[in-house]
Write a structure and sequence with these properties.
Strand content: 5-15%
Largest sheet: 7 strands, parallel
Helix content: 40-55%
Distance between the termini: 55 Å
Length: 483
């Protein structure tokens, strides 16, 4: 079996790790792998590589129907075919394209349409979907490629794509392989480790809020900064933590190895409000560490179906409305939703505003994770200067009181850690994921499908006002942050 793995780049990150893990699994299974990307990778990949510069990130401007765009698409399609033919003397049995529906190169989707029309067997795997409140990378013009196979990494996306028009025989659920981590033994354990790149959807402000409730001598530690270290939001949180003398640490992964950082951790935390797969919910158990923090239902349900237990996660941090400027928040959320819809090429329906308003004002509290960075920062300032307000917040969120007392909510339960670790290694290990991947490839090779995604339906499914969060928006939906 010849498999071409295709992506815009191979920079360090989640999708690149997935590609390399899949390449390793395929090679072990006897398949021939060619990795194709738009930028030359740093160092030796360990697998055959072909450079197609036209795959690299490019301007998303312009439609696909004009002569110039069509010429670029034809050139990219031809370059992909040429890369495979130069390597094998033939086209791959399966061309596996990663994240093609995220608009980073305006030529890719029309090029894939051209390949599909030529009978090339395509598997389009989506690690993220722009419809999930990411209008900055949405493909406004043209349809998604038709009559080819698709894949996703969580069951929520699987269900949504089925409802949007795909068929079970043409849609594949392919979970990611999870690496097993180690913690250096014998180190002093004082950190609540947040092993992620500190981008907006990781809900950085909530980590600062949690830091107000941890015992003295302990810290909350991020491992990596955003790719753009001058990111306004990131610098804002660093400055606030410094101003309020909060026990936060930043960018520790730039100077220390992950095994070292796990060795100094009490447990791992996650405050993220949105994930594609959710490595942070799985990896800690393999390193002998528990997990506490914010539950993401559609992610955790997938893992619970495999037998994992998450005893130390909360669904929300409920903030009494007295601490929130509700008029201002309502205006912020409505304006953000208007920007989101317009960025998707739509006008916001009145019933969406009504649903959102009723949701905001139907309770005595509001989840901290739905607020803007500005509103989150204001609450953190209040709590940092007013222990009475902290007691009030604890009354609505009992787990914060346990955290304050040094009780990690069961994250030191060795039986649970061992059990979850075994489950992760079995359900998301190389052997199991390789079987799923190879089965998907066989179906792609053996079954031609006739199917099409309804883009309007997909948008309707994802743009749920009841799960709308201001820190979970793509760039086009985000309002400027006032320091």
């Amino acid at each position: 079996m010849r498999v071409a793995q295709v992506h815009y780049h191979l920079r360090q990150g989640g999708v690149t790790s997935v590609i390399l893990n899949q390449a390793a699994a395929l090679t072990e299974a006897g398949a021939e792998v060619l990795i194709i990307a738009g930028v030359t990778p740093q160092g030796d990949l360990g697998y055959p590589f072909a450079l197609v510069p036209a795959l690299a990130y490019g301007s998303p401007e312009g439609g696909h129907n004009n002569t110039g765009e069509l010429a670029k698409a034809n050139a990219l399609a031809a370059a992909l075919l040429r890369a495979m033919e130069e390597h094998w003397g033939a086209v791959a049995d399966v061309v596996h394209v990663h994240n093609p529906l995220i608009q980073k190169n305006s030529s890719l989707i029309p090029a894939l349409r051209i390949l599909a029309e030529k009978g090339i067997r395509l598997l389009l795997q989506n690690h993220d979907l722009a419809e999930d409140f990411r209008p900055d990378v949405y493909v406004n013009s043209g349809e998604y490629p038709e009559n080819c196979h698709y894949a996703v990494i969580n069951r929520r996306d699987y269900a949504h794509l089925l409802r949007a028009g795909l068929k079970p025989e043409g849609l594949h659920f392919i979970p990611n392989e999870v690496r097993c981590l180690k913690a250096v033994p014998g180190l002093k354990r004082t950190r609540y480790l947040y092993p992620v790149r500190a981008i907006r959807r990781k809900n950085i402000g909530e980590a600062l809020l949690l830091s107000l409730f941890i015992p003295k001598g302990r810290t909350i530690a991020f491992t990596l900064p955003p790719t753009n270290t001058n990111d306004v939001s990131y610098q804002h949180w660093i400055a606030l933590a410094k101003e309020l003398k909060l026990p936060m640490e930043w960018g520790l992964g730039l100077e220390h190895s992950l095994p070292e950082l796990y060795g100094t951790s009490l447990c791992v935390i996650s405050t993220s409000i949105k994930e594609g797969f959710g490595f942070s919910f799985l990896e800690p158990w393999t390193a002998g560490r528990g997990l506490m923090g914010r539950r993401i239902d559609y992610v955790c349900r997938d893992f619970e179906e495999e037998g994992l237990r998450f005893d130390s996660l909360y669904s929300s941090i409920d903030i009494p409305l007295v601490y929130i400027s509700m008029g201002r928040l309502k205006e912020e959320m409505e304006q953000a939703m208007i920007r989101v819809y317009r960025a998707f090429g739509r006008e916001l329906p009145p019933h969406i505003i009504k649903m959102m308003s009723e949701d905001l004002f139907s309770h005595d509290t509001l989840d901290f994770g739905r607020l803007s960075e500005e509103a989150q920062a204001a609450i953190i300032r209040t709590l940092a200067s007013n222990r009475g307000a902290c007691r009030d917040i604890i009354a609505h969120n009992f787990f914060l009181g346990f955290l304050e007392e040094g009780n990690l909510g069961g994250t030191e339960n060795n039986d649970l850690i061992d059990s979850n670790g075994k489950t992760v290694r079995h359900a998301y290990g190389r052997e199991r994921v390789s079987e799923i991947l190879l089965d998907a490839y066989r179906q792609v090779m053996e079954h031609q499908v006739t199917q099409k995604i309804s883009k309007p339906m997909l948008l309707d499914l994802y743009l749920d006002p009841l799960r709308f969060s201001l820190v979970g928006l793509g760039d086009d939906g985000a309002a400027p942050l006032n320091n």
